[in-house]
Design goal:
- The complex is a heterodimer of chains A (211) and B (391).
- Chain A is 55% helix and 14% strand.
- With 211 residues, chain A is an alpha/beta fold.
- Chain A is elongated, with a radius of gyration of 18 Å.
- Chain B has 391 residues and is of the alpha/beta class.
- Chain B contains 15 helices and 13 strands.
- In chain B, helix 2 crosses helix 15 and helix 8 crosses helix 9.
- The radius of gyration of chain B is 20 Å and the shape is globular.
- The chains are: A alpha/beta (211), B alpha/beta (391).
- Chains A and B meet through helix 4 and helix 5 of A and helix 8 of B.
């Protein structure tokens, strides 16, 4: 008999083959797909997040764990409807205009999804106008913006100002991150929060949802 | 002490001996200790120096080969040498519909600069989703193509005989190993495959290592007797943590770095400066083990790297520090000239004793740095670098 704990462990270990086998076994044993996602797959990422934050897992291992989780998700997701899975919230994420860097942003998006958020990833080099349109189309709870360079850092400020001018700033929380960003900078530009990496970004989003 | 040449000054520093002052590098590491072209234009304008003929020393970074005027004004001690393009190959810039600019390099890597961007980043990877057969079939460029070395020997000889500069030679592929593999296959694909398909990664690392060794063999045949320093590179840290498990690094990257470093040192009497950004304190003993002579840029804003006094205490007798001049994320562009000067004073105070320091900016100076800060920074390197060894 397979267990949810075994799935979670296989995700933590980054073993996509085991994840698929265990997920199929759990389904055959009559377990609900939503429970497999919540306790098994996201359960595994809930172990990975703190290990990554605390320097016991590194970027390659986290990417492999996400890959293993997605291997399981591929099997069960088609079996559930949108209403089966409780969503922690909706997040729009992107790297700001003029900046093509995305590994950090992708890791943050992965951690947010692993914590039950629906994430709309706009990609890289995203203008204020594109962010604003996404706010209007997606109605997110949170907008997360990334800048890796000191020279694209000002785009965070410009984008928040554009949100204010467009009348959408109050409709969502805004969080920022990236190598040259810190809490002081986030406060200065009027962001609602800052996180140094993906796991703490997901925690920050959970806190903002209850605020 | 008699006035020294720049070459003597840099040699003493890298041999852990004090000189008449701490050496200064502006553009000696051609893509890492210079200025972005927009920052350079600001600086020249501020100084009232006009020269519209600007040489870009490394195309992806859009950074410059500084003029002799700048080197003299700010007492720089290093001069860069780098490879040309393969015979008949030139950069062909193209525009995308979104206003960005791109080109395909000789390896088939696509480099893109967004419409309001300042540099080119690798966004297209010719060996994405590769197999072992793809590695064999890939049209590997020829490191011995004569175009790459055309004019290099004459230039090095000329600089060696007619100037006092320490000559810093650059290799291929941005001097990188695993980063070059990332450019070929994709960033995330590299990281994932170090765990799920390590044999494929090793096969690629073997190819890239062989390429670098053949390239350095050709380079050092030409200019080995004229140059003092060669550059190797691979970023191993993010802002806050190592990018990979140090155990993985020792298995997947270090042996190849060691092979190249050993080859270089067996071929020529040169020092190796190793570029590595980020929170990389944990790797410093490995760099010493490999035989890197100096670490660039000493990113003081990264976790574990701010305590430059500790870095000196723990590694200063084995590793020189090349960079460290001023916090480039929070101070150089954000604070006043006086605060920039204070920061330089602190770093020189931490790192200068007993040699083993070459001062430069921490990465290229960017256009958001006020011209007054650039001048204050470079002048402070000279002021405090001179005071440090004053007897």
């Amino acid at each position: 008999m397979a267990t949810m704990m075994e799935v979670a462990q296989a995700v933590t270990d980054g073993n996509d083959v085991s994840v698929r086998a265990l997920v199929n076994q759990l389904l055959a044993e009559g377990n609900r797909p939503a429970a497999i996602i919540q306790q098994g797959l996201l359960g595994g990422m809930a172990i990975v997040g703190p290990l990554f934050r605390d320097g016991e897992m590194f970027v390659p291992e986290v990417l492999v764990s996400v890959r293993a989780m997605k291997a399981g998700l591929e099997i069960v997701k088609p079996m559930i409807s949108d209403t089966d899975m409780p969503k922690a919230g909706k997040i729009v994420i992107g790297t700001v205009k003029g900046d093509l860097h995305d590994i950090g942003k992708n890791l943050v998006a992965m951690m947010m999804e692993s914590n039950g958020f629906e994430v709309v990833d706009l990609g890289i080099d995203i203008s204020p106008e594109t962010f604003i349109q996404a706010i209007k189309d997606e109605k997110p709870d949170i907008v997360a913006m990334s800048a890796l360079l000191t020279t694209t850092r000002p785009a965070l400020d410009e984008t928040i100002k554009a949100f204010v001018a467009a009348g959408v700033r109050e409709s969502c929380k805004v969080i920022v991150g990236g190598a040259p960003i810190d809490q002081a900078y986030a406060d200065k530009i009027g962001a609602d929060g800052y996180a140094p990496e993906g796991s703490s970004a997901a925690e920050l989003c959970k806190q903002l949802m209850t605020a | 002490m008699d006035k020294m040449t720049s070459r003597e000054r840099v040699r003493r520093a890298l041999n852990h001996q004090e000189a008449d002052r701490v050496p200064i590098d502006i553009g000696g590491i051609c893509m890492l200790t210079t200025l972005h072209r927009d920052a350079y234009a600001k600086l020249k304008n501020h100084l009232g120096y006009r020269n519209d003929d600007v040489t870009i020393s490394y195309f992806p970074s859009q950074c410059v080969l500084p003029d002799e005027f700048i080197r003299q004004r700010f007492h720089a001690d290093c001069y860069p040498l780098y490879l040309g393009n393969a015979t008949g190959w030139t950069i062909q810039l193209q525009k995308e519909a979104d206003g960005s600019t791109f080109y395909m390099d000789e390896w088939g890597i696509k480099w893109k600069c967004p419409s309001s961007g300042l540099y080119f980043d690798p966004v297209g990877h010719p060996l994405k989703d590769f197999t072992m057969e793809d590695i064999d079939r890939f049209p590997w460029p020829d490191p011995r193509d004569p175009g790459r070395l055309a004019g290099l020997k004459q230039k090095a000889k000329d600089l060696y005989e007619n100037t006092g500069y320490a000559l810093v030679m650059h290799g291929a592929l941005g001097n990188g190993l695993y980063v070059a593999v990332q450019w070929l296959i994709g960033h995330e694909e590299y990281f994932v495959n170090t765990i799920v398909k390590p044999d494929l990664i090793h096969a690629l690392m073997e190819k890239i290592t062989a390429y670098h060794i053949a390239q350095w063999d050709a380079i050092l045949d030409e200019v080995g007797k004229y140059i003092d320093v060669v550059v190797m590179s691979d970023d191993l840290g993010t802002q806050t943590y190592p990018i990979m498990n140090p155990k993985k690094y020792r298995e997947m990257v270090k042996p190849y770095q060691m092979r190249i470093a050993n080859f270089i040192k067996s071929k020529a009497d040169v020092k190796i400066v190793y570029h590595c950004d980020g929170a990389i304190y944990t790797f410093l003993p490995d760099f010493v083990d490999i035989g890197f002579d100096a670490l660039n840029p000493v990113q003081v804003t990264a976790d574990g790297m701010d305590d430059t006094a500790r870095l000196k205490r723990e590694f200063g007798d084995k590793l020189s520090f090349w960079g460290a001049g001023c916090d480039s994320q929070g101070v150089l562009s954000q604070k006043s000239p006086a605060e920039v000067r204070d920061e330089v004073q602190r770093r020189v105070g931490d790192l200068a004793a007993g040699g083993g320091l070459i001062l430069s900016s921490i990465h290229n100076i960017q256009r958001d740095v006020p011209a007054e800060n650039m001048v204050a920074f470079y002048d402070a390197l000279y002021e405090f670098g001179t005071a440090a060894y004053r007897k």
